[in-house]
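Suppose a classmate hands you a notebook page containing two proteins, each written out with its sequence and a corresponding row of structure tokens. How would you begin to make sense of it? This section walks through that situation. The first entry is reproduced here exactly as it would appear on such a page.
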Amino acid sequence: MSKQSKTAIFFHMGPGSNSEIEERLLSTQYPEMLFWNQPFQKSDVDGFKNLILNTEQIVSSMIKENGGPISVMAHSFGGHLFHQLSLRHPEYFSSCTFVATGYDIVSGFYQLLKLVGADSATDSALKLKIKNYIAENPIQKSSEFWNYVGLIAQDPGFLRLYWPSENLFKNFKTYATSATPMDMESFQNILNDFLKHYYSPLNPSPSPWTGSIEILFGEKDPLIDIEHESAIWKKIFPHAQIKVLKNSGHFIHLEKLLNT
């Protein structure tokens, strides 16, 4: 095995994002980990499909170099990449850890929208707008997803809700300002394709992969309904071990390192 070969890969929350912050903070702790920056998806069709194929290529190359299956750490939406690859190539993987990985992203963003609307730090005009919108749309719908995103984005500090403390959010921002920003075109293209062709929370595709999988949820994650998400992932990976971390948010894997 060459000095540059890796036996594990990190799938970032994405879509349209990168692993710069994780590599900066976690590379010493996980020297065997490839912190892969996913390619942008500029086509307005097949965004998620193309990302799956991109991921499949990099994983296949790692397996050829290492001579065997690899481990995965998947944060947030990265779990969907693992799920799809486990359907196509279950032999690729030895183990996986999901970190704050929700399957039902429509439910997650609707939940986040309600929290933004109720948060004391949210601008009063936006709070009223969200209140009125929810009153008119009391049930989550896939067709309303981009309306959720649009309203949430009107609060420039909504990411504060991803963290269990103001100090952690402040420390995260210090790293985030020097990282490549999320590519919003890729974000939209990937999620449009995902919602149209892959999103099925009531009938998700069970995976034939039987390797070791641990699913970590943060107790205070604004995107996760723990009971709801646990039930979905258990349909996909019946053997999964699910753990809930108290006083943790959406960036479980970074909180200890930023808590200084």
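The notebook's second entry, a different protein, reads as follows.
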Amino acid sequence: MAEEIKDGLLSGYLRFARFKKVIPHISGNKLLDIGCDEGYIIPYLPKGVEYLGIERDTNLLNKAKRKYPKYNFIQMDVTTDTIKQIEPKSFDTILMIAVIEHMAQPIDILDKLRSILNEKGRNIITSPAKKSHNLLVLLSRIGLARNDKHEHESYIDNAMVTRLFAPGKFKLMLHKTFQFGMNQLWVLEKDG
């Protein structure tokens, strides 16, 4: 049986730091939050946003549904195959906050997500930098970070993401690091 996911003492601060970087880049009013966890970002969203949260962990999803009953949530493990279940061109913004590093084929998934974005839709991603691994493991072990923060399939970097920058794919609107270079932010806009 998998260990229950538990927050560490700094988890709320770390989440808020990511949200603070992400919120200014949300575009439009139809929002998909992949890896929504317990719906932590909902209180920070602009008014009037149509929100859909996707989460693969049943316990986290049930907590989100209880906390935010007016919002929509579905259970799904997002893969290149399951993306086909989502209506094409149905979102203005897709959020992937500290989730893509947990996916087995992150760049392939990003490429497939273009199909569910509206014209000029945005994909906003945060992901820890590879150099943060040892620190995340330490913080997790001593109870300062969430106990799943070091369980990554892979670390993505800007060189990997640039494979998506081509006519008809994505344009890079922004890439920057934050938290002393330990975390990264990408804002990609659908091109065509």
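A careful reader of the second entry would note: Residues 2 and 148 are 11 Å apart (CA to CA).
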